[in-house]
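Need tokens for this chain, all 88 residues.
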Amino acid sequence: MLLKMHCIKTTIMEQEHVKVFTGTELFVNRLSFLLDEASIPSLIKNHHESGRLGGFGTLMSGVELFIYTTDTEKAAPIIENFRKEIAE
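Here are the structure tokens for all 88 residues:
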């Protein structure tokens, strides 16, 4: 039983992420919410918050959004619509 659980965990950890958006925390959180509504998991890397906690200064637009490479096709129309929405 332990061996089977280990195999599942390894498979999940081997999935690769791809960066799909970089922007302010507000925009990244909004896009993450839209992806979540479509059952697409995402990962947020907030360089500004990490730098602040570590005592370093960073740019406010240092927030990145990642998704699994396997979800890129499904996420593409959502990301494209979001980019159009924020460009207006």
